[in-house]
Amino acid sequence: PRAGVTLHIYNVGGSSTIRTVNGLFRIIGSGVYHAAVEVYGLEWSFGYSEDDGTGVFSCRPAACEAHDYREAIFMGFTMLSQEAVRHLLCQLAVTWTGRSYNLLRRNCCHFSNEFCKGLGVGPVPGWVHNLADAGAAFDDTVKKGMEARTGIPLTSQDGYHFGDFTRGVVATGKETRGVRAGSRYSFGDCSRGLVRLICGSSFR
């Protein structure tokens, strides 16, 4: 058996502003998108829900009513049978619960990426999810800065203080050169941290 797999990309929501922003961001390889995967005649994606059930849902291809349709990307062919795809979706439905949804770390784009990998056609293009990944990296950096400022793990600390982001960048730079975040500052830690933040974990 062989079935085509298509990644459907939407502008998040129906706002003309988001459509315009994504038009600009797409040029530099980024944007705010909803993503879904079509296989065997149905489109599958993931979203937040308040109950304990799954966040995985389906609709007709290119017809998600909550978002503004943008484009289709053909990902290739899966060798999984329709039954095998159903089994894969059942597994994903258990692990991708609605309450586990996180805008920066576990959203529809991350689900689509994992689904495509399971189908043997992934990963999805990086520009689909890199803005969320950058947001998650920023969030991690701020948390590191708060920990560096207080000297204690981030649990129920107070809110953001001026300079936390910079402290987080420096802490990331220290980790990049293989020392603890609380170690003495070395020239270049800030630059190393910024490059790591922009380039991701591939920079060492």
Describe the structure.
This protein is α+β, with helices and mostly antiparallel strands and 204 residues long. It is built from six helices and five strands. It has helices spanning 16-25, 82-95, 108-119, 130-150, 164-176, 189-199; strands at 3-11, 33-39, 42-46, 56-59, 68-78. A five-stranded antiparallel β-sheet has the order 4-3-2-1-5. Helix 4 crosses helix 5 and helix 5 crosses helix 6. The longest helix has 21 residues, at 130-150. It is elongated and about 60 Å long. The chain starts with a strand and ends in a 5-residue tail after the last helix. The mean pLDDT is 84.
Short overview:
This protein is of the alpha+beta class and 204 residues long. The chain has 6 helices and 5 strands. The mean pLDDT is 84.
Keywords:
6 helices, elongated, alpha+beta, 204 residues
